[in-house]
Write a structure and sequence with these properties.
Layout (H helix, E strand, L loop, with lengths): L1 E8 L5 H11 L3 E5 L9 E4 L2 E4 L8 H4 L4 E4 L12 H19 L5 E3 L8 H10 L4 E3 L20 E2 L2 H16 L6 E7 L2 H6 L2 H11 L5 E3 L2 H8 L3
Parallel strand pairs: 1-2, 1-9, 1-10, 2-5, 6-7, 8-9
Antiparallel strand pairs: 3-4
Helix pairs in contact: 3-4, 5-7
The structure holds zinc ion.
Length: about 230
């Protein structure tokens, strides 16, 4: 079977428009949220471009992400390599618990804040002390392989202009792919970057292209993780 899943970080207000698009096309995503940053209002400069990074309200979480998956992204988005073991437990486990209270289901996944800031000790601490069982990292492999290690789960592609041409080619390849084995297209990004680069239309073209295929299942990260574990 072929699976498409998305993973989007930070819970900014652009998720409202993003989720609407996904729902229109029947595409599922996992949303990695910082429970300590809800309602924060700020403009950031990201890669030299000013963009709104206002975060949604906690009261929105349940309904906005219904039908998708909510996962952890730590309470306040620190570099985990600079955190003590206790701080890692607090940041990851505390975020998972806060989000569980808002969503009404156990939080089993996360995305590492800032991308590459994790190591084996952090993975061990998370597995031993929290409900999190898979974690997304940053760094595209541009293939359709399933993750070998769920706590070091690298995506197929990043929703960013620097990978955009590649994304559309990969989408065509994935649609054409005929395989007896499981194949996964895993796209990650931030919805605020669609404002940053003004390329909502480009993302919609991707959705149009890949949606509604009878041989593709549109799933959350949690569903893929269960398949990887043979559940
Ligand atoms: Zn983030």
């Amino acid at each position: 079977m072929k699976y498409l899943t998305l993973s989007f970080d930070d819970g900014t207000i652009q998720d409202r428009r993003f989720v609407k698009l996904l729902n229109q096309y029947g595409i599922k995503s996992t949303f990695n949220l910082n429970s300590g940053l809800f309602n924060q209002r700020h403009e950031i400069v990201h890669e030299g471009i000013k963009v709104c990074h206002d975060e949604i309200a906690p009261e929105e979480v349940h309904d906005l992400y219904a039908g998708h998956e909510v996962a952890a992204h730590t309470i306040t988005h620190p570099n985990l390599l600079k955190c003590s073991r206790e701080e890692v437990i607090h940041q990851v486990g505390g975020d998972a618990k806060a989000l569980e209270a808002l969503c009404g289901y156990p939080i089993v996944g996360m995305a590492y804040p800032g991308g590459p800031f994790f190591n084996d000790d952090i993975i061990d601490t998370i597995l031993t002390n929290t409900s999190v069982r898979y974690a997304r990292a940053v760094g595209s492999h541009f293939t359709f392989k399933l993750p070998e290690r769920l706590m070091e789960w690298y995506p197929t592609c990043y929703l960013h202009p620097k990978e955009y041409d590649r994304l559309m080619v990969l989408a065509d390849e994935f649609i054409a792919l005929e395989t007896e084995e499981d194949a996964l297209f895993y796209l990650w990004g931030h919805s605020f970057e669609l404002d940053k680069f003004g390329n909502w239309d480009d993302f919609e073209r991707f959705c149009e292209k890949i949606a509604g295929k009878s041989d593709i299942r549109y799933v959350t990260n949690r569903e893929v993780a269960a398949i990887v574990r043979g559940e």
